[in-house]
Amino acid sequence: MSSVHQLVPRSLRVARIVYFTDLTQVDARVIPLGALSEITHRNVHGLALTARGELDAKEIELINPLLRQRLAHPFNFLREEFQTAWDGAEPGEALAFLAERHGSSLSVLRPRPVGEAAWWQKLWSSPRIETKLVEAVDTEFASLMREYTDKEPEPERTVIEFGRAAA
Fold first, then answer.
1. CA 164, CA 144: separation in Å to the nearest integer?
2. CA distance 157 to 102
3. Residues in contact with 150: Cβ distance below 8 Å, sequence separation at least 6, in sequence order
4. What share of the chain in percent tops pLDDT 90?
5. CB–CB of 12/114 below 8 Å?
6. Apex CA 156: angle with CA 152 and CA 161, to 5°?
7. Residue 93: strand, helix, or coil
8. First-to-final CA distance of the chain
9. How many Å apart are CA 89 and CA 163, to the nearest integer?
10. Residues 31-71: pLDDT tens digits?
């Protein structure tokens, strides 16, 4: 949602976005597409997406024809999904919302928490919260790219949304 309607528990979570080329084979190629991060803290809710701008020709050939055109430029497609989650999910639930929508060949993998108690005590101002959100999504994207490709883990494009509720 575009604003935080109530105080929600503080959390920082990340999720990877991948395309499984063959769901019947354990060792089938996995194409990394992007990463998401979501933060809730006091009256702040933020969501970030970092995704590849385009796939190479070999990767495009491996994608199901029904999705091929949409996933040839992952950021463009995922930006729309990002906006759907921002507009439609409750604060703190955007990653789960997207994981429910995309759980097959195109998958938003199960969100996982980032950070520890000591880290939370250092977060007081919103600029630091925004920085942490971007750090989390960029770190997850780099890790995803290193795990599945030999390409340099360079984020292609990032988008961020923040909402604040009256305290």
1. 30
2. 21
3. none
4. 44
5. yes
6. 135
7. coil
8. 17
9. 13
10. 999 999 998 877 788 899 999 999 999 999 999 999 999 99
Query: Which residue, 160, 159, 133, 164, is CA-closest to 3?
Result: 164
b/e per residue 28-51 (b: at least 16 CB within 10 A): eebbbbbbbbbbbbbbbbbbbbbb
158's CB contacts (< 8 A; 6+ apart) are 48, 49, 50, 134, 137, 138
Residue with tokens 């097959």: 104
Residue 109, judged by CB atoms within 10 A of its CB (0-12, 13-18, 19+), counts as: middle
Collapsing DSSP to helix, strand or coil, 138 comes out as helix
Structure-block tokens of residue 59: 């990767």
Q: What is the pTM of this model?
A: 0.82
DSSP letters for 61-91: HTS-HHHHHHHSSHHHHHHHHHHHHHHHSPT
User: Residue 97: CB partners within 8 Å, gap ≥ 6?
Assistant: 85, 88, 89
Residues of the chain with pLDDT under 50: 1-5, 117-118, 124-126, 166-167
Please tell me the distance from the alpha carbon of residue 156 to that of residue 117, in angstroms, as a whole number: 31
